[in-house]
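User: Please predict the structure of the protein below. I'd like the answer in structure-token form so I can feed it into my own downstream comparison script.

Assistant: Understood. Taking the following sequence of 111 residues as input:
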Amino acid sequence: MTAHTLVRQDPHERDDIHQPTWQCQTCFALCTEDGRPDYESCLDFRDDGSCRGSVEFMSVDGRGRAWPRCLTHRNARLDRYEGSIEQYAHSDVIPSWFDPMDAGERWDDEY
């Protein structure tokens, strides 16, 4: 296992984490003070043993805000995102949940 160069991330410096954690300056993974993955920082942490792999910040679409997730939950979120893109991205059929009054958007994006 590669040694982590850890820097403390205090809660007041980061609004998405409510407790102090450590971030590796080499791989950017969130770790405990002793260098193990900080699964409690995973957005989908449930204390059921489902977290696996490193905990890193991830933006699903590469444009939005990044959230900390372990490898298992990061892959599950990507699968859900890709499934929704395949289902809706190129469809002319407006889904029942879409409301153009919510943000003044149109489904076809052609202005």
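That's the full token string. The CA atoms of residues 9 and 21 lie 5 Å apart.
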